[in-house]
């Protein structure tokens, strides 16, 4: 399991950018070898490698494409079957065919060479490589001459694939959220924390730093190292080497053992100090629980401040020691140049003695150079340790920086999520407020419509009331006018009755009935008009006004219309045809009176 998969992938991308930079004059083999080591140790998955390579192949710059092809070639040759599986895919082969068709000659030749090598070395395992090779041959592409040395692919000395399982390979304990699963980098099996608690480098997989291994692999690796170191130390001296040289070698081996034991003692002391600090902290915590809350708070604050101060002082001391232990590059260069000169002199002297058949024991120059090299050897080991220490120190700093960058990115992502959540809450609140306002507005509109309807009803009632009052008023006026006209008419009739009609001018004589006959003997002919005439200056008299009658030859009554003049008025009444009323009490009527 990768502890920091994101940082490893980013480191791989940076190394790949460095190896495929268009500013490089020659190929950067150091960064390419680092890429291969990262893939071998499974710090980066092969899928991620192929995806990044595809992006590089689609770049516009031809130099970057050519450098990425060189990187992919070295990765395929050195990183084994996991990368071979990812290469032998349909989309990768189609991408290579596009590069052959669209790219310039240099890139085309490189891709053809790679496909030819892969089909020769891996065609038996992956048929798609041979198929693409045959298709390109059919399209009449010219392949460069094949070199068998370039078609060699390394499948050995590669870390095995991790095997997934639900229980420990050794103790058969089932994995849970509290019992986590770990993989051995040497055998690839899954183990629990107890069974894979040890760590050591694995030279056969080119892993030169401590990684997690199981106990069985740890024993194999450590015993293998001791067995390799034993024959070197116990090998018999050559006849040409003197007893002094053998003593010097024994001393050197003793010094190495002593330094190793010292390192073990230092590590044990550090572990014991950590355990003692833990015990002291637990005792302090137990004492603090028996005291009051106020004392608890004070003690915890004092402890934290004291611990922080101690940590800061320890870090300062460590940094000062580390900086003091660092050696300048000039000193290292001078020391290495001196050692190289001694080694060259020793080599040339030995070759000259061998050619002249001289004895090495009698050559004082060889012995002096050998003694000088033996004296320089511990200093050389010390410088190597210091360089390794500085390298690990800077690697730890780099890891911390990557952790800080990842933490910063995670924090920024959380901030963005929090900001988006806040914006969504504000938007939802605004939407709810808009909905409430719309509901209130609809309610107010409904109230307004009701109020307008109420005002309209009130206005209609007022208009009806006014119309009723006007109608009553007009009826009263009409009745009043009628009564006045009746009074006037009655007064005129009475005046007319008091005058003699025979002496009146423009008066036609009335035909009277015989005295001997009665009114019952003659039929009365009446004619009622269906529609009264309307004249502006004439007023139609009602039926109760008197009418003048005339008789014809057949002694029938005829209703004659007469104009009755009215005094003190310009209006003339017209008596139309109506039924006469006869007064039967008089025997000889001279005038017919109407009711």
TrEMBL record:
Predominant place of localization: cytoplasm
Domain VHS: 19-144
A GO CC term assigned to this protein in UniProt: early endosome
Top-level division of the source organism's lineage: Eukaryota
Compartments where found: Cytoplasm
One GO BP annotation of this record: endocytic recycling
Keyword Phosphoprotein: yes
Keywords, in A-Z order: Coiled coil, Cytoplasm, Metal-binding, Phosphoprotein, Zinc, Zinc-finger
Domain FYVE-type, chain residue ranges per copy: 162-222
Transmembrane segments: none
Gene3D superfamilies registered for this protein in UniProt: 1.20.5.1940, 1.25.40.90, Zinc/RING finger domain, C3HC4 (zinc finger)
Single GO molecular function: ubiquitin binding
PROSITE patterns (alphabetical): VHS, ZF_FYVE
Coiled coil spans: 257-329, 387-417
Protein name per the record: Hepatocyte growth factor-regulated tyrosine kinase substrate
Gene source species: Adineta steineri
């Amino acid at each position: 399991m990768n502890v920091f998969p994101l940082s490893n992938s980013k480191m791989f991308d940076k190394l790949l950018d460095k190896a495929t930079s268009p500013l490089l004059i020659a190929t950067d083999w150091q960064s390419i070898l680092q890429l291969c080591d990262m893939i071998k140790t499974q710090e980066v998955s092969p899928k991620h490698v192929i995806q990044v390579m595809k992006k590089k192949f689609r770049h516009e710059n031809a130099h970057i494409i050519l450098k990425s092809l060189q990187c992919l070639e070295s990765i395929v040759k050195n990183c084994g079957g996991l990368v071979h599986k990812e290469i032998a895919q349909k989309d990768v082969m189609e991408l290579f065919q596009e590069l052959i068709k669209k790219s310039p000659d240099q890139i085309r030749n490189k891709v053809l060479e790679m496909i030819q090598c892969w089909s020769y070395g891996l065609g038996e395992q992956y048929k798609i490589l041979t198929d693409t090779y045959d298709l390109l041959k059919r399209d009449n592409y010219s392949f460069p001459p094949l070199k068998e040395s370039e078609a060699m692919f390394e499948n050995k000395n590669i870390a095995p694939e991790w095997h997934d399982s639900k229980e420990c390979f050794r103790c058969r304990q089932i994995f849970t959220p509290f019992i986590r699963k770990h993989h051995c980098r040497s055998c690839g099996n899954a183990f629990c924390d107890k069974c894979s608690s040890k760590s050591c480098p694995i030279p056969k997989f080119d892993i030169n730093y401590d990684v997690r291994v199981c106990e069985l692999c740890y024993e194999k690796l450590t015993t293998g190292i001791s067995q390799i170191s034993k024959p070197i130390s116990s090998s018999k001296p050559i006849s040409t080497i003197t007893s002094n040289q053998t003593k010097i070698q024994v001393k050197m081996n003793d010094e190495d053992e002593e330094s190793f034991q010292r390192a073990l003692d230092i590590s044990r002391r550090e572990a014991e100090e950590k355990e003692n600090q833990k015990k002291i902290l637990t005792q302090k915590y137990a004492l603090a629980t028996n005291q009051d809350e106020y004392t608890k708070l004070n003690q915890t604050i004092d402890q934290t401040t004291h611990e922080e101060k101690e940590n800061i002082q320890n870090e300062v001391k460590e940094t000062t020691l580390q900086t003091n232990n660092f050696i300048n590059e000039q000193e290292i260069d001078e020391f290495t140049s001196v050692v190289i000169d001694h080694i060259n002199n020793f080599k040339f002297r030995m070759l000259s003695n061998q050619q002249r058949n001289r004895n090495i024991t009698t050559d004082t120059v060889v012995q002096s150079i050998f003694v000088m090299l033996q004296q320089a050897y511990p200093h050389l080991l010390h410088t190597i340790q210091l360089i390794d220490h500085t390298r690990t120190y800077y690697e730890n700093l780099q890891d911390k920086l990557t952790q800080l960058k990842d933490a910063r990115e995670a924090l920024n992502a959380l901030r963005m999520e929090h900001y988006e959540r806040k914006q969504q809450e504000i938007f939802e609140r605004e939407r709810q407020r808009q909905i409430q306002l719309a509901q209130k507005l609809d309610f107010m509109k409904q109230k307004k419509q009701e109020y307008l309807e109420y005002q309209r009803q009130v206005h209609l009632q007022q208009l009806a009331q006014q119309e009723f009052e006007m109608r009553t008023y007009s009826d009263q006026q009409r009745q009043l006018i009628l009564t006045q006209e009746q009074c006037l008419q009655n007064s005129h009739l009475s005046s007319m009755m008091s005058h003699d009609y025979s002496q009146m001018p423009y008066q036609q004589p009335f035909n009277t009935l015989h005295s001997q006959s009665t009114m019952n003997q003659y039929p009365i002919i009446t004619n009622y008009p269906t529609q009264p005439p309307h004249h502006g200056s004439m007023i139609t008299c009602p039926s109760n006004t008197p009418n003048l009658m005339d008789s014809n030859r057949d002694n029938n009554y005829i209703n004659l219309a007469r104009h009755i003049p009215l005094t003190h008025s310009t209006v003339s009444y017209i008596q139309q045809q109506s039924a006469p009323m006869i007064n039967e009490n008089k025997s000889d009527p001279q005038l017919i009176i109407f009711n």
